[in-house]
Amino acid sequence: MLPIAPINEPVDNRAMRFLGTPAALSENGSAWVLRYQKAVLSKSNFASSTNLEFDQHNYYFAGRGAAGQNVNSYICADAAGGAGDDGKFPVLVGKWSIQAEYNHTFLRRERVLNTGLYAFAKHAHGKFSENATVSGEGTRRITGTT
Question: From what superkingdom does this record's organism come (predicted)?
Answer without folding.
Answer: Eukaryota
